[in-house]
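Comment on the following before class.
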Amino acid sequence: MRKCGSCQKCCEGHLHGEANGYTFWKSRKCHFLSTAGCSIYETRPDVPCKSYKCMWLEDEEQKIPEWMKPDEANAILTWRNVENVEFIELIEAGETMRAEVLSWAIQYALNNDLNLHYQINSGWNKIGDPDFLKAKI
């Protein structure tokens, strides 16, 4: 079973959410993230803190390579469902997406017939089935 370890990309201001009344979003880290890690780890809220799992962490079969761990890839893979449309979301997390990260994600999506919504230089792109491509995400 994979563990976050020192990875804190989901708390560093790359995702959107709220913890105990404090909102975080792109470029605004979680209020409770300190240099030592989560300052409320033992009492952190269920949503999003305990319930959120990036795809790398959830990958029990380890189809996603070790180097795609968010703090190594500087990108976060998340499984999403918006308006009954399922897709993988790949976001930049700290730097512009590296070619090998994007290439791996595109191949993974294509090989597994999955929709992919990805971010490059803060711009969004999609590949996938026609319904996904038409969806307003």
